[in-house]
């Protein structure tokens, strides 16, 4: 399809059931390439469920999801990530016992071939270099060797954004990225996202 007119993401009549609970019903919208959108609603409205449905954590029980014109409704989450969907989660999903560098390295490798290789990366490894570049981009290069469990809440949120960006996503979805941040930390996150 013509990429200029193809939406980045397109949902048509998407629904998601959990047994008798209808969490989403007939969600239809699209987002053009380069557009930014927000999903607003009260707690329990289904915003995170919608993100999980788009990303493949909970595939839709009805309807259609297309990413750049390609039907992905029943594509597993890991394949959607490799096709270009990056995201953060409402609840932190970081490897607390690993360093910032190692978390970013795992994120960079996560969408690459041979991602499960047990070979220790060498000094000139491109994935290590990319992890270092992402750390600089999200303003965490000064804490590369710090264990994630020792980071401030704001730094953890920055790392989550970095991990989402590490795969060079074509579509970036942020689930409450400023949740729990102080009034001082929020402008820094906004600057980072811009």
Describe the structure.
The structure is a single chain. The protein has 194 residues and is of the alpha+beta class. It has six helices and six strands, in the order E-E-H-E-E-H-E-H-H-H-E-H. It has helices at 47-55, 77-82, 100-109, 126-137, 153-165, 185-193, and strands at 9-18, 21-31, 62-67, 70-71, 85-87, 171-173. The strands form two sheets. A four-stranded antiparallel beta sheet has the order 2-1-3-4, with helices on one face. The protein has a two-stranded parallel ribbon with strand order 5-6. Strand 1 (9-18) and strand 2 form a beta hairpin. Helix 3 packs parallel to helix 5. The longest helix is centred in the C-terminal third of the chain and has 13 residues, at 153-165. It is globular and about 45 Å long. The model has no long low-confidence stretch (mean pLDDT 88).
Helices and strands in order:
Elements (H helix, E strand, L loop, with lengths): L8 E10 L2 E11 L15 H9 L6 E6 L2 E2 L5 H6 L2 E3 L12 H10 L16 H12 L15 H13 L5 E3 L11 H9 L1
Parallel strand pairs: 5-6
Antiparallel strand pairs: 1-2, 1-3, 3-4
Helix pairs in contact: 3-4, 3-5, 5-6
Give a short overview.
Helix content is 30%, strand content 18%. It is α+β, with helices and mostly antiparallel strands and 194 residues long. It has a 4-stranded antiparallel beta sheet, with helices on one face. A two-stranded parallel ribbon has the order 5-6.
